[in-house]
Amino acid sequence: METLISVLPVYFFILIGLITKKAFKEKIDEKSYVILSFYFLQPILVFWGLTKSPIDYGFIMSPFIFYCAIFSVLTLLLLFSNAIFKNSKDKTIFLAVSLVGNTGNIGVPLGIALFGEQSVPYTSIINIANMFFIYLFSVYFFAKDSFSVKKSISSIIKLPGLWVAFFAILINYFQIPIHNDISRVLQMGAYAAMVLQLIVFGVYLSEVKLKTINWKLSLHISFIKHILLPVVGIIIVLQSDLSVYVASILVMQLMVPLAVNNVNLAALYNCKPYDVTASVLISTILFSGLLYFYLYIIKYFIGDA
Q: Can you list the alpha helix ranges (DSSP code H) found in 51-179?
């Protein structure tokens, strides 16, 4: 029950976005919110997360193993995506979206509910690793469908979140202190980023119609996110030397539903944002139903954290 209650604020803010768009319709310009979130609040979230706790062995190994699972599955997707999808935009969404989980808005509070507040450093660093994947690979997949390779790479280099992340790592590595008042401002911006992302998702969700959902795309993405990726992740984690506690947190982060950030990127690059929204919706519903079984799987294969 505590686990389910911990994710209720997530659905609350999504509902606010949905109701607001339904009530005010054309008065709500969702793309403006996307730009505000992606170019201003998201970099604050990145900086806050990377300077929150010192970098140590656990922080390094967690994202490394997370990437091993992500790139193992991505290799399979690259091999078989052409056979599954003929539409270029569907293939782009399949590659860009399937592996990007909601490690921040759901992963962080869920980690606190399941493993206590001491899980925050690990969930945060995995969330940052996830955001690096978004900024580098998801952005590339989305951008290359509309631009040349040269322009795609250029669009990645111009992303503020990427440069902010490098700057934050340097701050953390050299242990440069951050004043408490500045830290408080960063925390406010980070939480604002999470809330705005959820509201944007709710706004796009209000335009989704069940009759127009691209079920083939959504179900293939959900299979990758909720079955294939967790299975590969568990296999890799069992071969590692991570403690049961950290391993459990890592597997949980691989199991969370699709990230709302997927909608932001799809909107920015005009790549079927409503189809992406529908995929995120279906993934979130499936996760809510699978959560109990996920907890059992973690306990059975990884152990009691």
A: 57-84, 88-97, 107-115, 120-133, 139-144, 149-157, 160-173
**Residues 34, 17: Cα–Cα separation, whole Å:** 13
Question: What is the distance between the terminal CA atoms of the chain, rounded to a whole angstrom?
Answer: 18
C-alpha span between 206 and 125 (Å, rounded): 32
Residue with tokens 């001491």: 118
pTM for the structure as a whole: 0.82
User: Which domains are present in the chain?
Assistant: 2-301 (1.20.1530.20)
Res 305: pLDDT: 62
* Whole-angstrom distance, CA of residue 129 vs CA of residue 63: 6
DSSP-based three-state secondary structure for 287: helix
The model's pLDDT over 135-194, given as tens digits with 9 standing for 90+, comes to: 888 888 888 766 666 666 676 677 788 789 889 989 988 999 999 999 999 999 988 988
Mutual angle of helices 42-50 and 160-173, in 10-degree steps: 20
